[in-house]
UniProtKB/TrEMBL annotation:
It is found in: Membrane. It comes from Mikania micrantha. One of its GO terms (cellular component) is cytosol. GO terms for molecular function: oxidoreductase activity. It holds the Pfam family adh_short. This is Uncharacterized protein.
Length: 353
């Protein structure tokens, strides 16, 4: 024990400065290698035309726009979410944009048997899976201590963590056959925690760690693209959140809105272009990177900033982070209707020709 303590004390003094010196010396070589890789990837782009892309969470937001980007590249699509009436319209749009075949299936990614069924149906119909894009998610806007019902905690972890892992687990043997690609939608909150998002951030951090480990285990047989992004205009940012009571709620009008334009489309383009190039990471917007420096070298600055923001906004009446809209309005407000998302237990499969 004493021996270990002595070794660790010596290493604490020696390793950090030695590593920094080595990093500084190897920086030019590393930069050169990274530029060569970029040049290589800009020339050798996978032709995804007629290949098969499964997208979970395709009924809105980033998932929907990613479907359109793959459609423009003439990929066959399998669109998965619980609201199949929305998937129908999105499938038709994707067909018009160039996807040769589009299947859509109502399924709950939190259930392993649903995931098994939509991947098996994909194999039955197309015989292969080339890309698996995971975009299912549910955010929340409550302080941890405000939650009324602890049973919502596993639900948030289920959707944000296991909802990615089950489809990956089931699709992996087929992705290995096609030397395919997995796309993961994490978020900048996986390393830059924001108040009111504790469980969401925790699930996303777990997701990033899981896929980085899986990348090592797969050793290049299947590529993994991890996308970390900041605030983007989607259902999630337009009011779809989990409230303290645990119901999945949002403004009805906004839930039915088509998320399009600006950052969502731009980001979907970035993700698909990174996936076909086999890139490991996509970041949007990249200026968030500067906070990494603070996190590493001056974490107190971030803590003080968030404290300052929280006290300026008032702890219990803060608006949705980033939207400036009140969380709870009076029920007489005509804009506000709650929608509890139906729980689909039987997956349905449909083809748009
Ligand atoms: N928007 C942002 O600003 C932002 C920022 C950082 C990271 N992200 C990440 O980007 C990804 C996409 O976010 P988004 O903004 O596009 O969210 P979104 O518009 O709310 O879309 C979430 C999708 O997940 C589906 N879904 C939720 N639970 C499901 C379940 N149990 N089974 C099957 N499908 C389910 C929803 O469809 P149904 O309701 O029809 O099932 C919907 O299609 C997420 O991973 C999110 O964490 C978003």
């Amino acid at each position: 024990m004493l021996m270990m303590d002595t070794i660790n004390s010596v290493l604490n003094w020696v390793v950090p400065p030695a590593s920094l010196v080595m990093l500084a010396l190897s920086w030019p070589t590393l930069t050169f290698i990274s530029i060569c890789e970029r040049i290589y990837h800009s020339f050798f782009v996978e032709d995804i035309g007629n290949k098969v892309v499964v997208i979970t969470g395709a009924s809105s937001g980033i998932g929907e726009q990613i479907a359109y980007e793959y459609a423009k590249k003439r990929a066959n699509l399998v669109l998965v979410a619980r609201r199949d009436q929305r998937l129908r319209g999105i499938s038709e749009n994707a067909r018009r944009l160039g996807a040769p075949n589009v299947l859509f299936m109502a399924a709950d990614v939190v259930k392993e048997e649903d995931c098994r069924r939509f991947i098996n149906d994909t194999i039955t119909f197309f015989g292969r899976v080339d890309h698996l894009v995971n975009t299912t998610s549910l955010g929340h806007t409550f302080y941890f201590e405000e939650a009324n019902d602890a049973s919502v905690f596993p639900m948030l972890m289920d959707i944000n963590f296991w909802g990615n892992i089950y489809p990956t687990y089931v699709a992996l043997p087929f992705l290995k056959q096609s030397h395919g690609q997995i796309v993961v939608n994490a978020t900048v909150e996986n390393w830059l925690p924001l108040p009111r998002m504790s469980l969401y951030s925790a699930a996303k951090a777990a997701l990033v760690n899981f896929y980085e480990t899986l990348r090592l285990e797969l050793n290049g047989e299947v590529g993994i693209t991890i996308a970390t992004h900041g605030w983007i205009g989607t259902e999630m940012t337009r009011g779809k959140f989990m409230l303290e009571e645990g119901a999945e709620m949002q403004w009805k009008e906004e839930r039915e809105l088509q998320a399009s334009g600006g950052p969502v489309e731009e980001f979907a383009k970035l993700i698909v272009s990174a996936a076909v190039r086999g890139s490991a990471i996509v970041k949007f917007p990249s200026w968030y990177n500067v906070f990494l420096l603070y996190k590493m070298f001056a974490p107190d600055v971030l803590t003080w900033t968030f404290r300052l923001l929280s006290s300026a906004q008032g702890m219990r009446t803060t608006p949705f982070v980033g939207t400036r809209r009140p969380l709870l309005e009076s029920s007489s407000s005509p804009r506000r209707r709650h929608t509890v998302v139906p729980n689909t237990s039987v997956p349905r499969i449909q083809l748009v020709e």
